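I had to read the description of the data format several times before I understood it. For illustration, here is how one protein appears when written out as sequence plus structure tokens:
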Amino acid sequence: MRRRVPGLGALSLARFASRVREAVRLPGAVNILVSDDRELRKLNRQFRGKNHPTDVLSFPANDVNKFAGDLAISVQMAARNARPLGHSTADEVKILVLHGVLHLAGYDHERDNGRMARKEQQLRRRLGLPLGLIERASRPQKSLFALRRRSRTSR
């Protein structure tokens, strides 16, 4: 953890990631880099050719039985995303871990006709998390107040 997450320590994050891996049935360990916008921008540019920071990046491993892959998360972006939705940065980081682990497990919301979105929603509810990334992205920006209300009531 290169950046501190208020209310979420390294051990707690590791335990949560383990719960997510088990729920997704993803064998192998997952490394999580918790950093800032600057580092995520650098990684995004290097590996995806996009010169802007992002909230989470997933790097699947070749042999998932021993090592599932790496996640990189920007705490700064997590805090900015959490604020208007009315939940904590810690909850947002957990949402990003869930989203990233689903990618490591082979889900791809850009190509799977809603399969990842359904799985993310199911697991988000089971894990007691607020509104997930894919659900937010599929809703119009102008309904942010409704998203905030739904996020608080769906726990």
